[in-house]
Design brief:
The structure is a homodimer of 321-residue chains.
Chain A (H helix, E strand, L loop, with lengths): L1 E4 L4 E7 L8 E3 L2 E7 L1 H11 L4 E7 L1 H13 L4 E5 L5 E7 L6 E4 L7 H15 L4 E5 L11 H10 L3 E5 L2 H9 L4 E2 L3 H8 L4 H11 L3 E5 L5 E5 L2 E5 L12 H13 L18 H19 L9 H13 L5
Parallel strand pairs in A: 1-5, 1-9, 2-7, 5-6, 9-10, 10-11, 11-12
Antiparallel strand pairs in A: 2-4, 7-8, 12-13, 13-14
Chain lengths: 321, 321
């Protein structure tokens, strides 16, 4: 079982309009509403791959209860931690003419006690888990140090810990000893202030991260260890919707590093140390899942046939070390 | 007591952003969320004026339960008619630079049985009422004939009926004998296809409306009867937020035509026939309330001191018949 924490879940609303424009009243032609947040997307992809997951999410207000019900309808096991604030909404406006416009609410003010309850839920579920993924933003204004006990506790429980975070929260996850920190390149440079990817990765490794996996979209994906870098090219010529591709890549990474059914293979931490061969295999899985997500119109889904096709394709092309 | 039906209530969400733009991701700096719909605004103004109201609204989903709770918190008596579809949301995006952008969801598909239940709620509440107001759009795709039993039933119950509707629903309200149809000028011309205001008003009067009150913003407000037109100029030099001014005007109109506390004055229909003197008094009240709403930043509120000031001002200036 894989535990996925989404610290700032959302109700993702998509409005289709005829033509986006500022300063006018727009008839919404079509409304789609689904539970969102990066961790939720990761959990969906893992679940679709046949792996048992438990989603831990702070949820509050009517938007929170809607999210819990919708996740249950979709068959996702959830551990909802009640919070007083309302779970946020994001609104994405689309037409056939321009790029989407996205409005992101900041998220609720979560109290220290509520964050502590999130920690208790993480620890409780990690006892039976093979991996712990924490993915997505913290609510605006949250103390990034809340990340430490989540990551530290999961490390202590002996599970693979993957942290897809940004800003100070990413630094905290590294310091707490996350097995893998997985920012995209911009997030890595932004959080560390480093001049280039390798320098940024070395910063996180020095803080305590086991491996730093850096996704760079069509420029491929790399895993940094103190010894060096393993890189895998992206699947070429994949066009579609890149939203959620990074989350599918996180799922692909975790799937490659855990038993096929998500069970713990041993009482000890999953593949440790993460050698370059293991990492190359995991990066190919990440790249294949990421590309297969681009082929699907919504985040949290992958084209299963494409995953297999892309894995074969990436096995044939090599990778540089 | 005044019954106010909002056929298509909404959760009105306002997002403040730094600068509106199409095709980008926008941080929402501030979120405001309140129950909306034209009828809700009318009920708020009546309630603030000390008149007992009952709001009848079809409500569904988590947005519907949120709306019911929020209205109760605001002290508004509600009769919620449960519907299977989700109550709609509107999102208005504001900054300090451009006009607001408003996204309006279509509203739920309400079944014939659910509309019948709305009719039952209207009839039940009108038995103890002095007036019935139906205000705002129908959900997109709703059969405009649903309006008939609401208006017809309230007329039969002997209460003052004010219909602020548009399109075919406005024509249905007229045919069902609404005491007052109150479109704005654009809505009147659009619904009737008439070349000018008087022709449009005569169309509605011929269908069965008692009086047609036409608001034209800063151009004033007029009441049409078969005998002629009474007009009152708008309060000059009022600047602010015009959203909800028409709804405040509707409240002002109803307040002038009912007992000060909203009680029924007699068993018979309130002021009937609505002579030109009575109408002139009512139009002044409508104009004062509408202008006093412009001074408030949100719909559903009026500046009480301004109402009195504007009433005095409008009494001094005359009106043309």
């Amino acid at each position: 079982m894989i535990v996925v924490l989404t610290p700032n879940p959302a109700v993702d609303v998509t409005y289709r309009v005829a033509e986006q424009a500022v300063g006018v009243t727009q008839r919404v032609l079509d409304v789609a509403r689904r539970p969102g947040g990066k961790g939720v997307n990761v959990a969906r992809v893992l679940h679709a791959a046949g792996v048992e997951t438990t989603s831990v999410l702070p949820l509050g207000g009517t938007t929170g209860s809607w999210t819990a019900e919708a996740l249950q309808r979709d068959g996702l096991t959830t551990t909802a931690v009640p919070v007083a604030g309302d779970t946020r909404t994001t609104v994405t406006v689309v037409d056939d003419l321009a790029h989407p416009t996205m409005y992101g609410e900041p998220g609720p003010a979560v109290t220290a006690d509520e964050w502590a309850a999130v920690g208790v839920a993480v620890h409780g579920t990690c006892a039976a888990a093979s991996a712990f993924v924490v993915s997505g933003s913290l609510p605006r204004g949250a103390d990034p140090r809340v990340v430490r006990p989540w990551v530290g506790g999961a490390v202590d429980a002996g599970v693979l810990v993957v942290a897809d975070l940004s800003g100070p929260a990413l630094l905290e996850a590294a310091s707490a000893g996350a097995t893998i920190c997985k920012p995209n390149r911009d997030e890595l440079l932004d959080a560390t202030g480093a001049p280039d990817e390798r320098a940024g990765a070395l910063d996180l490794l020095a803080r305590g991260a086991g491996v730093v996996v850096v996704s760079a979209g069509s420029a491929g994906i790399s895993a940094h260890t103190p010894d060096g870098v393993v890189s895998v090219a992206a699947v070429p010529d994949v066009h579609g919707n890149p939203t959620g591709a990074g989350d599918a890549a996180t799922a692909g990474l975790v799937l490659a590093l855990t038993a096929p059914d998500g069970r713990r293979t041993t009482g000890a931490p999953a593949p440790d140390p993460l050698g370059h061969d293991v990492l190359r295999h995991a990066l190919r899985s990440a790249a294949a899942y990421g590309a297969a997500a681009v082929l699907r119109p919504v985040a949290g889904e992958v084209d299963r046939d494409a995953v297999d096709r892309f894995l074969t394709q990436l096995d044939r092309t090599g990778s540089s070390t």
